[in-house]
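Q: Structure tokens for this one, please.
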Amino acid sequence: MSTLAPPPLRPADQVAIVCPARAASHTELAAAVATLEGWGLRVRLGASTNISQHQFGGADEVRQRDLQQQLDDPEIRAVFCARGGYGTTRIIDGLDFARFAEAPKWVAGFSDITTLNCHLLARGFQSIHGVMPLLFNQEGGAESLESLRRALFGEELAYGVPAHPLNRPGTATGELVGGNLSILQTLTGTASDTDTRGRILFLEDIDEYCYAIDRMLVHLDRTGKLAGLAGLVVGHFTNPQDNAIPFGLAPNEIIHHYAARYQFPVAHGFPVGHEPQNMALIVGQLVRLTVDEGGTRLMTV
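A: Here is the predicted structure, written as tokens:
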């Protein structure tokens, strides 16, 4: 397996912000525009911004057409998805990546945008799982934002994370895959499905019931997504829910239960997901994962 990394951004490059899922207004995106301009970039706000149809950033055809335009336009060197929510799976199969393949560019987002990250990976292209424009100015998010800038401009990414009691030590090398657990599960069997064999999987989610997290892990395991992993990185499982009769295991314990069936290294507590500490990861990039008593280290090979 090998994937193609788009060229790094340079000052004066033009980038676009689009809403493939939930709506975002120009007012909500103003801080992100200022940040990107502060990085020396020129910003285009796509036609799917500043409009809405119910929760979405416009009708499906509007969001699809806008994203297609930015993917195809050779003047646009990166596409930022304004926010997640829900909606990317509704438009993904209508997108054509033929012109994108002639001149690949960075696509960045997380949460619902895991669909786009995985769809690109299945076609051999790297993309960025990282903080989205709506969250650029969130309190405590400066380090995450800087990691996104480094990823976009081709600077090295290397992370160190404290030890976690559920970690399993070991060293693994492989391409990064993953993102939002609930999205990954719904992509199984589709044109956006992710091949996890020999790769390092990272997972995160928000607002999910503990039993639902268990059900999704059962599904991933039954479909062979865990058996062939080189390594597993567990991010934030923010605001987990439970029933009146508790499920009995917290999210990290649920993941530990299924990972224990295999021998790959496992790193819990990684700063990725729906919290201010959401460090940029390049989906498809070859990395080395080291887990030992001193903690976790993840770096580009």
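A few notes: The chain has nine helices and 13 strands. The first strand starts at residue 14 and ends at 18.
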